[in-house]
Design a protein that fits this description.
It is a single chain. The chain is an alpha+beta fold and 367 residues long. 40% of the residues lie in helices and 10% in strands. The strands form three sheets. Strands 1-2-7-4 form a four-stranded antiparallel beta sheet, sandwiched between helices. Helix 1 runs antiparallel to helix 6, helix 14 packs parallel to helix 16 and helix 16 crosses helix 17. The longest helix has 20 residues.
């Protein structure tokens, strides 16, 4: 059995749904695209992208001994329509990938097991990566033939649609490469047109500063006021551009128990989420990717959804958070209450210092 056939067989036994091979290098054009993204300011607060830019441009810059990249995919396809929750304005919409166990932990465990077998069988050096190292996994996956980057910049697979978690093993093995995947988007622009915030300046370009996934996960401060009404009830990530892709007709529901949605995260009530303290947040999101943003940012997102709900019954939870210890939460609570019950908000408005000492929160009252 050839090395590639052996690795494919082992990967399948470990639960990977797709595996492809490509040289551990990317063309200069890929790095140039990254440079343009950074120069245009599209990265927003994600300063690590600029700090790691030289290594991120191509895998061999991070590990000069690497010869091949083994790119693997795990299907996390949902059972139903991920966008149906958007009509339930008293509930929070959590991205499909985060309604379950943290994929970083699940995929990395499998990658390490496969890497150990490769090292033991072939005497090769190996390193594993799941989304947290300066490695551009989507361009590698495209060159390996796992899929292609659609107009929304995400990977699309002819076999799994939008729903693949990616993991990569770099190795000193010199493995024969697979054929890169072609771009099968054609004239379709469904992913561009559905974006609630207009985060795509052009096909194949994304301005993270307008992306709901960025705003709810990566952005640490108050969410820009102009974008808040466009977020609807999306409280962690956004699946719109993924879910609308026509290639999802070939997708299938995941069979991995760790990626099935938890009942409490599939359609959580905004009122209950707004009541979470730090301990409650950590308990609810134990083993979840959501835990990394912390309670304050998460409740900020919940309050934006409450403000967008149009439900006066949710004014109470917003009002209670006007006294929260976090200025980020207090500011979002001011905005939410003013959307649902402006008259009540006016009666609660601080009259003078030091009733509210945080300038950001004062700015919300004065807006």
């Amino acid at each position: 059995m050839s090395a590639t056939a052996n690795i494919r067989d082992e990967a399948a036994r470990l639960g990977f749904d797709a595996v492809r091979f490509t040289p551990a290098r990317l063309p200069e054009a890929t790095g140039d695209d990254l440079d343009r993204f950074l120069l245009q300011g599209y990265a927003g607060d994600m300063g690590w992208l600029a700090r790691t830019r030289p290594r991120r441009r191509s895998p061999e810059r991070m590990w000069p001994d690497a010869r091949s990249a083994i790119v693997l995919g795990v299907n996390y396809g949902p059972a139903g329509d991920p966008l149906a929750i958007l009509r339930r304005r008293d509930r929070g919409a959590i991205s499909v990938y985060a309604q379950n166990d943290d994929y970083h932990d699940v995929v990395k465990k499998r990658l390490k097991a496969l890497a150990r077998r490769i090292a033991g069988r072939f005497g090769a050096e190996v390193k594993v990566f799941v989304d947290t190292a300066p490695l551009m996994e989507k361009p590698l996956a495209e060159r390996a033939g796992l899929g292609w980057q659609g107009k929304h910049t995400n990977l699309v697979s002819r076999d799994f649609g939008s729903w693949l978690f990616l993991g990569t093993i770099l190795t000193t093995l010199d493995l024969p490469p697979d054929t890169p995947e072609a771009d099968w988007c054609g004239s379709c622009r469904a992913c561009l047109d559905i974006c609630p915030t207009g985060a795509f300046p052009a096909p194949g370009q994304i301005d993270a500063r307008r992306c709901i996934s960025y705003l709810t996960i990566e952005h640490k401060g108050p969410i820009p006021r102009a974008l808040r009404p466009l977020m609807g009830n999306r409280i962690y990530g956004c699946d719109d551009c993924l879910a609308v892709c026509p290639w999802n007709k070939y997708a299938r529901m995941t069979e991995e128990p760790a990626f099935l949605p938890r009942a409490e995260l599939a359609a959580p009530q905004l009122a209950e989420l707004a009541a979470l303290d730090d301990a409650g947040f950590r308990a609810l999101f134990r083993k979840s990717a959501i835990k990394r943003i912390g309670r304050d940012r998460f409740v900020r997102n919940v309050l934006i959804a409450i403000g967008n709900s149009g439900d006066p019954d949710l004014a109470g939870p917003a009002e209670r958070l006007l006294q929260d210890a976090s200025a980020l939460v207090r500011g979002a609570a001011v905005w939410a209450l003013r959307q649902l019950d402006p008259a009540r908000a006016e009666t609660l408005r601080p009259d003078a210092e030091p009733a509210e000492t945080d300038p950001g929160v004062r700015a919300e009252w004065e807006a």
